[in-house]
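Good day; I would like, with your permission, to put a structural problem before you. What I wish to show you is a protein chain and, alongside it, a tokenised description of its three-dimensional fold. Here, with my thanks, is the record as I have it:
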Amino acid sequence: MSTFPQAVIFDLDGVLTDTAEFHYLAWKQLGAELGIEVDKALNEQLKGVSRLQSLERILAAAPVPPVLTAEEMEHLAAKKNAHYTALIASVTPNDILPGIAALLQELRAAGLKLAVGSASRNAPFVLERLGLDSAFDYVVDAGRIQRGKPDPETFTNAADHLKVPYESCIGVEDAAAGVEAIKRAGMFAVGIGSAQTLRQADYLVTATELLSAEHILAAYSRWIDKA
């Protein structure tokens, strides 16, 4: 078994750029329209999950959770996305998180395939705004994913498209649901955040600027040797 990986699959929000605050503001605005307070604690529960799953968690936080049809749910989710899309229109290449541009170059120079596996249906638009739309070999279409994170489908979809065995993939995430998805896919998990939150990560840093291809590849090699 090769001790060198073939592909790296990145989450978007909190990994390549930080649009989390835009998500929060958009959900907060929708919540206010529904009479539901979306505070920071509730917002933490929305990270890494799909738009409809996020909406379900917000509605469940209401004093009297409303019972809505699938059509009504889709309407509210689209309304939130309209808020969010207006906010992210201001994103520029300056919003790429520290260290990420250099990391992508290092991984590409090492011959690895690169993909984005995000729950966001806006990923292509955000990547274009960041100037990273040509940096990746594949971007998972979140609209075609049947089961969101922590289900592994997002990551296995990317690996299948790239024709890379799952154990030869590295996933990079900042959310617990995302790290769980990577591990359930049988991949090597790089976590960005706290050890308490990302306990399942195989390799952990506290911030993106601490990521380096050399250290990630060395950690992957040790991991695969033990497999």
